[in-house]
């Protein structure tokens, strides 16, 4: 099935090869098809997946997402007004539907962010966080 991730991969490769126009067209296509903003300048690792094709996902231009991440629908990964820096998400992270990752922070490897959680500070590796603002509710062994 066509997924916003595959379109992102094509746009990213073209951007890395310094082809100027086509990545912008693909970014617009992602917006029109999936109502998502997934820029080719963001770094999304191999094996990452967008739930439901990536519907409603907003990713900051400079965000870094690790390998094998599961990204649900209606997620925002963005900066914080008046602050420099954007989120860096580790490997094997699961972001449940509707969560918000805001500001200059890091989410550790193998962590899970619960549905509709709002993450505004660093999350260590191997934990489950949930709530507004997100708090650790479980350690994963």
From TrEMBL:
GO terms for molecular function: serine O-acetyltransferase activity. The keyword Amino-acid biosynthesis does not apply. InterPro entries: Hexapep, Ser_O-AcTrfase, Trimer_LpxA-like_sf. GO terms for cellular component: cytoplasm. It comes from the Bacteria. Transmembrane segments: none annotated. Keywords: Transferase. It holds the Pfam family Hexapep. This is Serine O-acetyltransferase. One of its GO terms (biological process) is cysteine biosynthetic process from serine. It comes from Ancylomarina subtilis.
